[in-house]
Amino acid sequence: MQTTANGDPGPHRVALGLRATLERLADALTNVDLDTLLACESEMASTLAASKDITIDPASRAETARELLAARAALVRCSRLGATLADLTRLSLSAHGVGQTYGRHGSGAGLAVGVHALEAKG
Question: What pTM was computed for the model?
Answer without folding.
Answer: 0.67
